[in-house]
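Checklist before submission:
- one chain only
- standard amino acids only
- sequence pasted in full

Submission:
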Amino acid sequence: MRLGILGGTFDPPHIAHLALAKAAIEQLELEEVIFMPVAKNPLKRRAMASSKQRLAMTELLIKGQPKLAVSDLEISRGGQSYAVDTMEELQAAQPADYWFIVGADALKDLSNWKNPERLLRLCRLGAALRPPYSETQMVARIPEEFRDRVDFVTMDPMEVASFDIRDRLAREKPVKPMVPDSILDYIRQNNLYRS
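Returned file contents:
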């Protein structure tokens, strides 16, 4: 079985997350991509929405989408969310060929991840490749010992980021079509991302 794990804070989830998952399914020939909201991201500041809210918004993002699922594994485990711990747990529970899907910008920090050598024995990385960066430029950013474990997923440029969406919402600026209506309704009902 070929499975993708798309981890992230998803604060909030948006259309670029969906586009990445769909591109990974197609290009890496995955049977499913599982969205995995983190409990706490060790490389980012604290999330603004609660774990429960981020999980609910991620479920809204993928509703009705074939080959997409959401897992609360990292949220249920609590504490810092490390890819290597998640992949060890997944391989023990459901052995498969896994790809841990990341934005290509995350590759430059790969050496700082918890036990990257162990992680890349448990899975491959599927890295989103977006203009203006070429595959050659991105390969140069990956530590040499990891390069044969990374597959690139090409995507059209999408100027969408969770921090920008939060900023726009705080300033009462429009965020359509970056965020589906169902998530926007949830954000309003739960009074999220207000200044």
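Reviewer check: Residues 2-159 form a domain with the Rossmann fold fold (CATH 3.40.50.620).
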